[in-house]
Amino acid sequence: MPAPLPEFQRYQYAFTAHIRDPKVNHCPRGIDAQRMLIYRRLVYNNIESFLLSCFPVLRKVLGTRRWGRLVRAFLATHRSHSPFFRQIPDEFIQFLQSEGTLSGNFPEFALELAHYEWVELVLSTSIVAPEWDRIDAEGSLLEQRPALNPVFANLRYRWPVHYIGPRVRIKPAETFLLVFRDTSDAVRFTEINPFTSRLISLLETAEYTGQAALEIIATESRHPSLEAVLQGGLTVMQDLRARGALLGVLS
Questions:
Q1: pTM for this entry
Q2: Which residues of 47-83 are buried (b: 16+ CB within 10 A; e: fewer)?
Q3: CATH number 3.40.190.10 given to 129-251
Q4: How confident is the model over 146-168, as pLDDT tens digits?
């Protein structure tokens, strides 16, 4: 059997347990209740401030009561794996993805909305940089391998998350979004279609030339004209390059 914890550690566990969930865990003996209230408020307010900076729309949509209930449940039940404040939103997403967290009277789109907002933080703080010495900005997007911006996300949702707001009524609709950080370090969101999403997915996961990727799409879709797919795909890739989602081709 493991040795019992020293008294001071038992006290620390009781202290932090009360801060996390005061309704379940009593205040440790010997601590003034008003002082403990200050500790509880400080911890809650600090956690909430990091979450509010990442999830402002989710907070507005849920309203004060449901948002507060969610933050308190996060504080009470989630066990974080990172000590860094910047990763509190990452931990919150993991918490929201836990089964049963968003049951009850939370909107069906709440998790996807939170993920959509979180992606902006992930991309804005990424330390990944393009390998510019391997990239030819003017190369052939069809004949060579297109170079994706390395700081990007190719997203697919069941809800049009980019339209959600406190007084906006929406219906489920399959939504494809491309998010990337441009050369000025601004995070850009753009709605794309399934064709573009599939093209980006192919370019991301394998060493395809632009034409090879488009030939796969033509086969998958059983399109009657390969030439039309190639021409349409080239137009899409040129637009992505102009926006900064494609940086050129790998040389």
A1: 0.91
A2: bbebbeebbebbbebbeeebbeebbbebbeebeeeee
A3: no
A4: 999 999 999 999 999 999 999 88
